Amino acid sequence: MTTAIPLVDLKAAYRRLQAEIDAAVARVLAGGWYILGPEVSAFETEFAAWLGVGHVVGVASGTDAVLLALRALGVGPGDEVITVAHTAVATVAAIELAGATPRFVDIDPITYTLDPAQLAAAVTPRTRAIVPVHLYGAPADMDAVLSVARAHGLLVVEDCAQAHGARTRGQMVGTLGDAAAFSFYPTKNLGALGDGGAVATNRPEVAERLRLLRQYGWRERYVSDVAGYQQPVGRTPGGHPARPPGPSGGGERGPAAAGGAL
Ligand SMILES: Cc1ncc(COP(=O)(O)O)c(C=O)c1O
Question: Which of 25, 93, 113, 255 could staple 10 via S-S, CB 3.0–4.6 A?
């Protein structure tokens, strides 16, 4: 007899956290606030505290998190953004959606993350930013990335979509660059029931711009200060994870615990 073992069993985490998730869904439905609102704000505060970062801004997906982080930092048409050739297509799509041109460097064959030795040669006068990707939970070599960024005056947006809770030299990924993008796609280490994303940053002016960009550019309701569109965070009742993983939360690991981050 053979038994099929699923690569990912998304229902496993639900079964483990069912009472808590059902209560959260019921609370959201009864609360009547289905886009942003108090539940998303509470999550942003808790996730920021767990990461040890000044600000977290919830967005609709990890792709939007990379896109809006770049836009909030002023990266756009005419700019080049260096990233790594071995990543999810979303990293590159977000750079292109920002209007910038992706430039690739290869991986280090041991770590599978961006090879910093190739970075300096990829910098041109049009380069504005580097997007290192912490892949499969393994942090990129951030000391080396930051040192090239500093030497050339470049911005750094960490792609942490696959690396919630990973640390490098004792520090959480997502706290090291100008901004960092997280995904809560259901198969990620911290997966939502639906898609979701967040940008973390220690720069208050970047957080403020992200809040404008994620909702029509509104500083005040119905008054658009900048061109933004609706980032429907919390579009589904379970569209954001109930809480960050780790000691403070019940969900130490998301649905990807068995299957790894996809
Ligand atoms: C490295 C990486 N960056 C960005 C993303 C985009 O996340 P999302 O699927 O939530 O848009 C993913 C998810 O596939 C990813 O693996």
Answer: 255
Kindly report the protein residue whose alpha carbon is nearest to atom 8 of ligand 1.
Answer: 62
Q: Which atom number of ligand 1 is nearest to the Cα of residue 197?
A: 10
Domains delineated in the chain: 10-243 (3.40.640.10)
Res 249 pLDDT > 80: no
For residue 62, the CA-to-ligand 1 centroid distance in Å is 5
C-beta of 95 in contact with ligand 1 (< 6 A): no
Ramachandran sector of residue 214 (left: φ over 0; alpha: ψ -120 to 50; beta: rest): alpha
CA distance readout (Å), 42 to 47, 67, 241, 244: 9, 23, 11, 11
Q: Which range among 109-118, 183-192, 215-224 shows the weakest confidence by mean pLDDT? A: 215-224
How far is 113 from 125, CA to CA, in rounded Å? 24
Work out the average pLDDT over 147-169: 97
Confidence of residue 235 (pLDDT cuts 50, 70, 90): very low
Q: 148 or 219: which carries more pLDDT confidence? A: 148
Question: How far is the centre of ligand 1, averaged over its atoms, from the C-alpha of 153 (Å)?
Answer: 27
- Residues counted in the chain: 262
Where residue 220 falls (left for φ over 0; alpha for ψ -120 to 50; beta otherwise) is beta
Q: Which atom of ligand 1 is nearest to the CA of 64?
A: 11
CB of 62 closer than 6 angstroms to any ligand 1 atom: yes
Instruction: Give the distance, in angstroms, between the CA of residue 204 and the centroid of all CA atoms in the same chain.
Output: 17
